[in-house]
Structure formats: structure tokens, C-alpha cells
Specification:
single chain; alpha/beta; Rossmann fold; 2 domains; 6 helices
């Protein structure tokens, strides 16, 4: 572990104020989910989105990534579009790149109330922002539908404009393939996650941490809630920093990562 007193720490307080104490280009990866559209009660937390986004850009290293998991409230038969407004702000005002718009699709999930005049919503957006070109990409691996390890190299244009297939195959030696940007995850709540109303599935946090960071790097969750991102960072040999304004969730996060 690096000798930095801010590493492997959880702060109780307003995340904007805490992030203002961090140096520029300090964080390798942020994985977080804001209290979007007041769909859950987060202990009366006031969500200062714009200043959070601006601070995240300042403290993210060049080549670093922010994963922003969010959904929209539906009111008066219309979605709020808050998620898209936030994504546009990250790009146009903060100068992040929108590297990917990923989907977290929930399995075995039934809405708590019947829907009227629309399909039940069973997904959330996972916006992946990068500060310049991302430094790290370790794609999640999934099983191939076939065990063939041959990969087709494609076809080539001739001088007359026509295409001809080239019977060139390579042996990749792989029995898995890279996952796509729709992650199908069961929203299981870990037994140690307490009563927090919006807990990440541990698989979601883990897979983003493994994808966008390497061992020994620093992972932030500025609204850490139950501490799932921090727990998965620690288990996977990353450093972590968490921030939460709720003393209850602050204590819960400390317990999950073993901070006395």
C-alpha cells in the first residue's frame, strides 16, 4: 500500500467540500451512483450535481475514468431526462469524453407497482466518462457460444471496387470473448449492506473496477452509501476513498471495509 494518509479512507461530509481538498489529477477511477431524481430517500442529502461533476474532472487523472450509474424518474407519463442532461454537462461543461453509454439490465426484477401505458423499466444507464483517452481497459470475459478459437479476418476491396473474401483464419487461442456494453446482473443485495435504499450489486462495482483500473490504483466513490464500491476495490487490490454525508452510511461503509 502507498504511504498516503488519504488512501483507504472514508470521509463523513459533503463530497464537494471533501473533493476540494484533493490535489489535481489524483483519482484513477470513480464508480458511483448519485441520488437521482429523488427516487430514494438518502437521509435528506442535497445533490449538488454541477459542482460534483466539475470536481470529478479536476481530480481525475488524464486517462482516468468516471462511471456514473443513473436512471430517470417517470412523472406525468414522461421520463425526466435528468440522466441525459447530466451526461451532456459532463461532456460540454467539464470536457470529459463520453466513452460509452452502457446498460445495467436487472434480472429477476419486478417493479414494486404496476405500470400504466408503458413497459416496466428494468435497466439503468452506466455512463462511462474518460478524461482523454482511457489508460486502462481490461474487458470482462464471457463464455463463447461456440468453443471455436478461429477468428475470421474479413474481406478486402479490389481495384475495381468489388470485394473478395480472404480465406485467412487465425487461431486466437481463446475460449472466451469480450463482454458487450449491456451487463445483465441480478440486483442482489449483499447481506452486509444494511438498510441502504439503493445498493449496488457487488458484481457491477467489481466488473467496472476490474475493467477501468489496475491493481494498486486509486478508486473513488464520492457518494459511497453502503460502501460497495470501496469493498470491491479493497477485495481486488485497489486503494479506495469514500465520502458520504450520512453518519449512518459512513459507519456502514467503514464496517464493510474493516475500518475501525
Amino acid at each position: 500500500m502507498k504511504n498516503d494518509s488519504k488512501y483507504n479512507t472514508i470521509y463523513l461530509g459533503d463530497c464537494v467540500e471533501v473533493m476540494q481538498t484533493f490535489p489535481d489529477e489524483y483519482i484513477d477511477l470513480t464508480v458511483t451512483s448519485p441520488p437521482y431524481d429523488k427516487l430514494r430517500n438518502y437521509q435528506g442529502y442535497s445533490f449538488d450535481f454541477k459542482n460534483i461533476a466539475l470536481q470529478l474532472y479536476r481530480i481525475t487523472k488524464v486517462g482516468g475514468v468516471v462511471v456514473w450509474v443513473v436512471a430517470d424518474e417517470t412523472k406525468g407519463f414522461s421520463e425526466s431526462l435528468s440522466s441525459f442532461r447530466q451526461a451532456i454537462f459532463f461532456v460540454e461543461e467539464c470536457e470529459f469524453n463520453l466513452l460509452d453509454t452502457m446498460i445495467y439490465q436487472k434480472t429477476n426484477y419486478a417493479p414494486a407497482y404496476p405500470t400504466l401505458r408503458r413497459y416496466a423499466n428494468t435497466f439503468e444507464y452506466m455512463f462511462v466518462f474518460s478524461k482523454g483517452r482511457p489508460n486502462t481497459f481490461n474487458p470482462v470475459q464471457v463464455s463463447k457460444a461456440t468453443l471455436s478459437t478461429k477468428q475470421w479476418l474479413g474481406k478486402y476491396r479490389q481495384q475495381d471496387g468489388s470485394f473478395v473474401k480472404k480465406n485467412m483464419l487465425v487461431d486466437t487461442g481463446r475460449i472466451t470473448k469480450d463482454a458487450n456494453n449491456v451487463w445483465v446482473i441480478c440486483p442482489t443485495k449483499a447481506k452486509d449492506a444494511g438498510n441502504h435504499p439503493g445498493v449496488f450489486p457487488e458484481q457491477l462495482a467489481r466488473d467496472h473496477i476490474l475493467t477501468w483500473s489496475n491493481k494498486g490504483q486509486l478508486v473513488l466513490d464520492p457518494m459511497c452509501g453502503s460502501g460497495t464500491t470501496l469493498k470491491m476495490a479493497k477485495i481486488n487490490d485497489r486503494h479506495f476513498i469514500g465520502i458520504d454525508s450520512s453518519e449512518e452510511y459512513y459507519e456502514l461503509s467503514k464496517a464493510r471495509v474493516g475500518i475501525v
